[in-house]
Write a structure and sequence with these properties.
Blueprint lengths: L2 H7 L2 H32 L2 H38 L3 H31 L5 H26 L3 H24 L3 H28 L8 H24 L4 H8 L2 H37 L3 H38 L5 H9 L3 H16 L4 H53 L6 H24 L2 H22 L5 H11 L6 H9 L3
Length: 508
């Protein structure tokens, strides 16, 4: 494939479609996770649930450190090579990445097995978590290849399908008394299936990994992976529930359970803007390989605007119905998690901005700046956790996490803007969306104040959706530029109704 062909294929429509599929591949699994957490809360005691959450945190953290740097570097390297028309280089990079991740996966999985041998309880759960880490490290290579060649739908379908099978099986294991060990056995088995499916489809999409990686390409990929891996370590402090460590030291397993529920709820919502932005790494790298600098600049500004506007109603809706939803789903003994949720839900718009900025910088080959910004936020997080967790338990952990998220976003945006130049936010448009989001929250709260229980929640969600849509259309919330862009790329959907709706929401 030539560089011009790859760049021509990287359009706003392909990026948004890819973002939707990537978001689905993470948002729906987050819903799967929520279903599993509800089942765990119902079948386990609060203390057991907290222990299961802690083991999961350790396993996911180890996997994140082992894979996030190499996966992002691999996705970017493959995308840039394909964008420049160097398919042979892409295949050689993939062959090399398989070998690297096989070694790191075994090392990471062995660490959890050693923890089990040293007395970590329950022992079998730690061993199975180690298997999950090893398999997950390998699966990350195949998934990165699919994203690098922009096969977003293929990558998404694998996880969505296996997850749909995993949830009822895991709930059945819980009901049969499998407990914590049974859950980790199911997760390891599902990861193995994902690995096989992803590897086969990645080979079909790009070709059989072969060839010897060029020294300069290996050096550049390793350098980028090194910076992004270091950034992943920092991310553990800022984004990935390192507050668990403070809660484990200063508090109880019950407080870990409360924080885990709130975090999982926010993560499920935040995954929408976060994963929509993930495809931009591949898109920006492809455009960079084709030297399309103007398209990169305009794409960055538009991405910031649209994802921020998408995050506002999600935030408002979650703040309005989240606490009642937690109480209904998990039970009254977990109702305090709703208070923690209210503290954390406000960071969703900040996560949207920070995710876009990281994707922009990573796509242009800059992994150092996100690391520096993350280090700054990590200091904020640790200081806040030391001060707040001993005094306020799970609520303090939520406040520490939120503070770090805001600090990270500020640093990342400042850095990205220096590279991109001025960003056209269309602030009047964002303000109109914020007004509509406020109406959404107010309507949902009003319904819940009158009607309680499942019926109240359903009506509150419906009222919130209507109360957002009506003001958004009446105020013509979208700028004329963004409305025209959306109409041009997606107006044909739903028999043209999507275009009519966008035009109705666009400023004249």
């Amino acid at each position: 494939m030539s560089a011009s062909d790859a760049a021509a294929r990287t359009t706003g429509a392909t990026v948004v479609r890819g973002g939707v599929w990537t978001a689905l591949s993470h948002v729906v699994p987050q819903l799967y996770v929520l279903a599993l957490t509800i089942a765990a809360a119902r079948f386990l005691t609060p203390s057991e649930y907290g222990r299961q959450s802690f083991i999961s945190f350790i396993a996911v953290s180890v996997l994140l450190v082992l894979t996030s740097g190499m996966a992002l570097a691999l996705m970017r390297a493959v995308a840039e090579a394909v964008g420049a028309g160097r398919t042979a280089d892409a295949l050689a990079i993939v062959a090399w990445a398989w070998r690297v991740q096989a070694v790191t996966g075994i090392v990471g999985g062995s660490a959890l097995v050693i923890a089990a041998l040293l007395g970590a309880d329950p022992e079998a759960a730690w061993v199975l978590a180690g298997a999950f880490v090893t398999l997950g490290a390998l699966q990350s290579v195949a998934n990165a290849v699919l994203l690098g060649v922009q096969r977003f739908r293929t990558a998404a379908t694998i996880g969505l399908t296996t997850g749909a099978v995993m949830v009822p099986v895991a709930i059945g294991v819980f009901a049969a008394g499998g407990g914590i060990v049974g859950l980790f056995a199911v997760e390891a088995a599902v990861t193995a299936v994902n690995l096989v499916c992803s590897a086969v489809l990645a080979r079909r999409a790009l070709g059989s990994p072969t060839g010897r990686i060029r020294v300069d390409v290996r050096r550049a990929t390793l350098g980028f992976a090194g910076w992004t891996t270091a950034n992943a370590l920092v991310t553990l402090v800022v984004w990935r529930r390192s507050e668990f460590l403070f809660l484990a030291h200063y508090s109880t397993d019950v407080q870990i359970a409360l924080y885990s529920i709130a975090f999982a709820s926010v993560a499920a919502i935040a995954a929408v803007p976060e994963r929509l932005s993930e495809v931009l790494v591949s898109a920006f790298a492809t455009l960079r390989g084709a030297d399309a600098s103007e398209r990169i600049r305009t794409g960055f500004s538009r991405s910031l605007r649209l994802l921020t506007m998408a995050a506002l109603p999600l935030t408002a809706g979650m703040a309005a119905v989240g606490p009642d939803l937690i109480r209904l789903a998990y039970g009254d003994e977990y109702r305090e998690a709703g208070t923690v949720l209210l503290v954390m839900v406000g960071v969703i718009p900040f996560l949207a901005v920070s995710s876009i900025c990281v994707s922009f910088l990573s796509g242009l080959g800059d992994a150092r700046t996100p690391l520096v910004a993350g280090l700054f936020a990590a200091v904020v997080n640790i200081v806040l956790a030391f001060v707040l967790v001993p005094r306020y338990d799970a609520l303090g952990a939520g406040l520490a996490n939120a503070g770090a998220q805001v600090a990270a976003t500020a640093a990342l945006y400042a850095a990205a803007r220096r590279v991109s130049g001025p960003v056209d936010w269309h602030l009047a448009s964002i303000a109109r969306v914020a007004v509509a989001a406020g109406a959404c929250a107010a309507a949902s709260v009003a319904v819940l104040s009158v009607i309680d229980g499942p019926v109240g929640l359903v009506l509150a969600i419906a009222a919130g959706a209507i109360s957002f849509t009506a003001p958004a259309l009446a105020l013509r919330a979208l700028s004329g530029e963004d409305a025209a862009w959306l109409d041009g790329h997606f107006g044909h959907l739903l028999g043209g109704r999507a275009g009519a709706l966008v035009r109705r929401a666009g400023a004249r």
